[in-house]
Amino acid sequence: xxxxxxxFTLSSERALADPKARIRGNLDEDLRQRIVAAVGEVDSPxxxxxxxxxHARSAAEAAEALLRSEGYYxxxxxxxxxxxxxxxxxxxxxxxxxxxxxxxVITWTDETPLPEVETEVRSEIDLEPGAPGRAIDVIGAxxxxxxxxxxxxxxxxxxxxxxxxxxxxxxxxxPEYRIDSGPLVTLDGIQxxxxxxxxxxxxxxLAPWDEGDIYNPEQVxxxxxxxxxxxxxxxxxxxxxxxxxxxxxxxxxxxxxxxxRPARILEAGATLSxxxxxxxxxxxxxxNRFGRADTLRYQARLAQIDSRLGIDLxxxxxxxxxxxxxxxxxxxxxxxxxxxxTGISLAADLNQRLGRTSFFSYGxxxxxxxxxxxxxxxxxxxxxxxxxxxxxxxxxxxxxMDRSNDPLNPTRGWRLTLSAQPTFVTGEDNLMFLRTEAQxxxxxxxxxxxxxxVAGRLRLGSILGGEELTVPADRLFYSGGGGSVRGFAYQGVxxxxxxxxxxxxxxxxxTSLEVRRDLGRNFGAVVFVDAGAIGFQETPNxxxxxxxxxxxxxxxxxxxxxxxxxxxxxxxxxxxxxxxIYVSIGxxx
Length: 589
Known about the structure:
The chain is of the alpha+beta class. It has helices spanning 2-16, 29-39, 49-69, 115-123, 135-151, 200-206, 217-228, and strands at residues 18-19, 22-24, 41-42, 76-82, 88-94, 100-101, 105-108, 158-167, 172-180, 186-194, 233-240, 251-260, 264-273, 277-287, 295-303, 306-315, 323-335, 339-354, 358-377, 382-402, 413-427, 431-445, 452-464, 507-519, 523-535, 546-557, 560-569, 580-585. It has a 16-stranded antiparallel beta sheet with strand order 13-14-15-16-17-18-19-20-21-22-23-24-25-26-27-28, with no helix packed on it. Strands 6, 7, 8 and 9 form a 4-stranded mixed beta sheet that branches. It starts with a helix and ends with a strand.
């Protein structure tokens, strides 16, 4: 009730506000509204003619300043007070003729840029003769001159006080820009300033220029982005050195200042899910261990489904900018409804960034261990249980394209993920197969403000060259859970064997449709329908499609939304729960 009352009070005060002065005169509506905004409002009308006169004079001064900034240099403004008992401040405005831009002039006060640079900069002034003589346009043109010089290597370019000639006889405004271009700057190497152990040689290798190249502010900014995206520094500064540090060769170094984040961080976490059970994580991270913005992470996880003890090393910008090398090793114990696996996993991958949000990766993985599986025998049509020791060598390739506007809460655009994994299996069985997968998502705003979003997802998967009975259980497709078909337990979408074991398949089809609606500043609501099917041939089939429907709420934080969804399976089977609840950070897709 208090909050509602406060809003009502503010609204009432706003409604009672009066204009400082009434505006009269032969004005077009756009100019009139600009003057009204410049004149402003007062909380209450004047209580005397003296106060009304003061309001009128103040309004006239504001109107004159506004008109001059818009190119009306011969405006006639008269301030009046009308009324005796109830005085009213009034200004009569005759804007007169609008002055127009005459040919702008650039005068080089000290050094002059190269002729071709001067020509290009002049072409970018974007101040056409005959255009309205607005002050903001005159000032903006000066900024474009300096910015154009800076982009072309004149890092010290600066503007001296400009001269603007207002000719009342010809009704023109002629700006003269007085510019000191400074010398053309060529770059040297990196001058590293840091208290940490980062290698200056490694930072130098990230610079997108060679010694002697002409200064380009975009290249300097790109070096800063490359250092920031490593995530191991609390502060990154990249700036051209002052002219006094020019080398004997005439080049200027770029100064890089790095502030290391805490070298070691210990994290603990817990998860609880109606679909995947409980889990506890302990993570110890060491940043910049080898002086090249690397991240070394040790992880211990105890969970109902996936427990592991592992280590991974991330080496950003490995041998070339934008490419990250990742090495990992883990002891794994997976205990799902479909299978149990105990073994070791080793992997090495290279991830190459394409632009700011897209990448492709390739690598190799080696998994070895013991599998305890309950599988469907197509000959006897009965479940068969067996244990086997296997080693899997996997070549991994994937690509990810992101053309959405936000990583955690997209409101427009699309994303596409593709992956292919040729796999060679040896041990108690020998086989080869290719596992492929693709997922596409799209985000469409329904209204111009983007408060209502329709989001869609499509995921397809296929295993080529393998058989359901022989492909290792952890490489088959399963569906169900918070990241696939909500309303079903983990691995709960596909058919089950008579002993209630989920039956993995050789193909996968999933789709989702969500309608997301903002409810005020921090809250949002979602309704959704998900569908999925597991197939037992190489191409997806839809004979056993399962559907889940539900709704959720979102609470928006600065870094993204926290989501809470409740989902219900349609045409529920005896093994399916009545509902599932999901809580996480970010949208479902």
